[in-house]
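Researcher: We're reviewing a set of sequences before deciding which ones to prioritize for further study. For each one, I'd like a predicted 3D structure that I can look through quickly. This is 3-oxoacyl-[acyl-carrier-protein] reductase. If possible, include the structure in token form so it fits the rest of the review sheet.
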Amino acid sequence: MTRSALVTGGNRGIGLAIARELAAAGDSVAVTYRSGEPPEGLLGVRCDITDSAQVDAAFKQVEEAQGQVQALVANAGVTKDQLLALMSEDDFMSVLDTNLGGAYRVAKRAVRGMMRKRTGRIVLISSVVGLLGSGGQANYAASKAGLVGFARSLARELGSRNVTVNVVAPGFVRTNMTASLPEERQAEIKNQIPLGRYAEAEEIAKTVRFLASDDAAYITGAVIPVDGGLGMGH
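Model: Here's the predicted structure for 3-oxoacyl-[acyl-carrier-protein] reductase, in token form for your review sheet.
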């Protein structure tokens, strides 16, 4: 039976790679997006994950089109980098509200159906920064670290219902955003990574695909780094 999957922020970058990977595995895949166009071949649902009413409406659209969500990937996120001394309260709170609050809203909407069916997969996309820290990213790091505590609490709540909750923590990934960094900065970053290169978005996606599959049925509450060794020990 084809499974219904939802990837938030799935219209570009890592989110799109995850959505394509799940589709290749045989899932019916929907993606939420806030701006731009929905990707071809996937069900696109416009949704701002900071708004509970929009999240509920998006889930209803997905449920009508492809059935109750059985695999949820919370990927949508934002950055508003600034040194703490100069960071506005709004820039701190809005990053938490999107990255951590957004995961809360979509997970809350998904879990009741998963609990009723006694099966489900939730994968939260964190970051090496959430474990390692990064100057100028206190808001982003706090939100991404928060996902770990959130996931592990959910793993304990939902384990008896056969719902697994795991975290993937990517390192630096080759995207349009990293490609726009000055070459010197790119070289500095690569020097810190034992494997000496950025990840491809597909490498993150394949890890998510595994965690969302039957092969990972006995993995829950785990944090899987896909960072080329950058954050090891954390």
